[in-house]
TrEMBL record:
It comes from Planococcus faecalis. The chain crosses the membrane at residues 33-53, 73-105, 117-138, 144-163. The keyword Transmembrane helix applies. Keywords: Membrane, Transmembrane, Transmembrane helix. This is 4-hydroxy-3-methylbut-2-en-1-yl diphosphate synthase. It comes from the Bacteria. The keyword Metal-binding does not apply.
Amino acid sequence: MILNLYQLFKASLMEPKRQAAVRIMTIGKIMQFIFIFIAFLTVIAFIELISGLDVATSNLDGLVEFVEEIEWLLYPFAVISLFVSTTIYHFVKISLFALIALVILNARKRRGEYRHLWRTTALSVTVPTLLAFALSFLDLGFSVSLLTSLLTVLYLYLAIGYYPKKPPIQKAQSKA
C-alpha cells in the first residue's frame, strides 16, 4: 500500500482503518509526512510570532530600534529554534502516545508492535494537534491539552480496532 502525502493527511483526519493500515508502510514515508506537518506548523507559528512581535514592539520605542537593528539575525534564529523545538515536542508526543496505544493494544488483545503503533500514532495526533493549535488562540489553558489528549487516545482506540486479533492461546495437550 503506497499512499502519497495528501492521502496520508486525509487518512489522519477521518479514517481510523487507514491509520491502522499505515503500520505496514515504510518508516520513511511516515517521517516525510511528520516533517512536512512540522514545517507547516513552524511556518504558522513563525507568522504568529512576527505579528505578535510587531504588536509588542509598537508600544516601546527603544525595542523597535533594537529589533530593527538585529532583524537579520532574529528571524532566521527564530525559524530554526521553532522548527527544532516543534520537532522535539512532536516526536516525544508521538512516542508517549504510542506507549499508551501499546497498553490499549494489549488490553484489546490485538497483535502489533511498538513500531507499528508509532506509525499509527503519527497519523492519529494530526487532528488533535491542529485542534490544539487553533484553540491556543482562545487561551483556554489546560483544558485544551486534556481535550486533545483524550481525542488522540480515542483515535488510537478506533485505529487499534482494525489491528489483527491475537490468536487464542492453546494449551499444550499432554499425551497420556
